Amino acid sequence: MQKAIKNVELVKVVITSTGNAEFKLPQTPNIEGRQIVGIETYKQSELPVTVDGLATLNDNALLDAFISINNGSKDVIQNLPLRKLVSSLNSGLLPAIEPTKVDAQKCTLKFGQTSHLYAGEVCLIVFYYE
Mind listing the pLDDT tens digit for each residue in 58-98? Predict the structure, then answer.
């Protein structure tokens, strides 16, 4: 029987420049050094704006985005396509990940091309942790 997930952290990565193809995750004290057991994101068509009124990452950019998760010394997850973290695109399922510690400021969000990026959009990433 699986344990219930009790801890969730929503991380917002703001697209500050359309000329950048790589963005660092912001400092996120609640998940620093914690065991991450799941990661999820959403398409813009599912969640068009954040609670503070910012537009979420457009679907074309999301389909061309990748996340790398760092544990402080190395990337334990490299270039995982964000589309795999959208449950509605994967029969309601999220990929199984090995529980891993995370250093959020060393985690990156990368885009294959910048033509779909719009400054001010926000990529929402949900971390489930123990």
Answer: 999 999 999 999 999 999 999 999 999 998 888 877 777 88
Give me the count of residues in the chain.
130
Number of separate domains in the chain? 1
59: containing domain: 7-129
- CA–CA gap between residue 50 and residue 45 (Å, rounded): 12
86 domain residue, yes or no: yes
